[in-house]
Amino acid sequence: EKSSTTSDEERSCEMILNALTEEEANGLVDKNMLRRHLRAEKGNVESATVKIKATLAWRKEFDVETIIKCASGCPKTLSKIAFENGTGKTYVRGYDRKSRAILYLRPGVENSTDVDWNLRHLVYNIERAIACTQKKSQGQVEKINIVLDFYKFRLRSAPSLSTSKATLDILQNHYPERLNRAYICNPPRV
After folding, report:
1. What is the strand order of the sheet 101-105 is part of?
2. In angstroms, rounded to a whole number, what is the distance separating the alpha carbons of residues 67 and 45?
3. Nearby residues of 161 by Cβ (< 8 Å), 6 or more positions away
C-alpha cells in the first residue's frame, strides 16, 4: 500500500509540475517542495497548485534569494539584517536528536518597528534553519523546531499585530510541512 501511496503522490506532484510555467518550475527550492505543498493541502492537487504558485510569486516578490545571500551580496540587506540581529530576537542555534535545527524567537527583546525588515529577518532565519537542518542531516530531514521564548516580554515591546499575523502567514503558507514542533517558554500572563 505504501508504494501505491508513493506513486499516487508522484503522479500528483507531476500534475502540479505540469501546471507550472517554466519560470515557476525553475523557482522551485528543492525536489520536495511540491510534496510538502501537496501534503499541506491533504492531497488536493488543485489547491496545492494554487498554493505553490502563490509561494513562488511571494518568494520572487519578497526577494528571498537576496535575503539568503545577504552576506555575499547586497550591503543594504546585510546592514538591515545585522541591525535586526542586534538584540538576538531571532536566531538559529543547536539541533534536536534527529538533526532538526532550532529557531529561537524572542519577542521580549524586539528592537525594531519596521514590519518589512522584521519579516525579512524572520525569513532569513527560517532559511538558515532549513539550510542547517539539511546540512546536518545530509538532506534527509526537512523540518525545523521553533522555540518561542517570552522572557522579558512586555506588551509595550510586543511586535505589532500585523507583524504577528504576517509571521503566521509566512510560516503557514510559504513554509508548509517545515515545522516539526513549536515550544513556548515563559508565557506571559496575558
Report:
1. 90-95, 101-105, 144-149, 179-185
2. 30
3. none
- 97: phi then psi, degrees, rounded to nearest 5: -65, -20
Is the overall model pTM greater than 0.85, yes or no? yes
Question: Phi/psi of residue 176, each to 5°?
Answer: -65, 150
Rg (C-alpha) for the chain, rounded Å, is 18
Q: Which of 187, 74, 174 minimizes the C-alpha distance to 122?
A: 174
Residue in 100, 119, 106 with CA at minimum distance from that of residue 171: 119
HEC letters along the chain: CHHHHHHHHHHHHHHHHHHCCHHHHHCCCCCCHHHHHHHHCCCCHHHHHHHHHHHHHHHHHHCHHHHHCHHHCCHHHHHHHHHHHCCCCEEEEEECCCCCEEEEECHHHCCCCCHHHHHHHHHHHHHHHHHHHHHHCCCCCCCEEEEEECCCCCHHHCCCHHHHHHHHHHHHHHCCCCEEEEEEECCCCC
Strand partners, 181: 145
In angstroms, the CA 107 to CA 153 distance is 6
Express each pLDDT in 46-57 by its tens digit. Answer: 999 999 999 999
User: Do 123 and 172 meet the contact criterion of CB atoms below 8 Å apart?
Assistant: no
Question: What digits encode the pLDDT tens for the residues 55-96?
Answer: 999 999 999 998 888 766 677 888 888 888 888 999 999 999
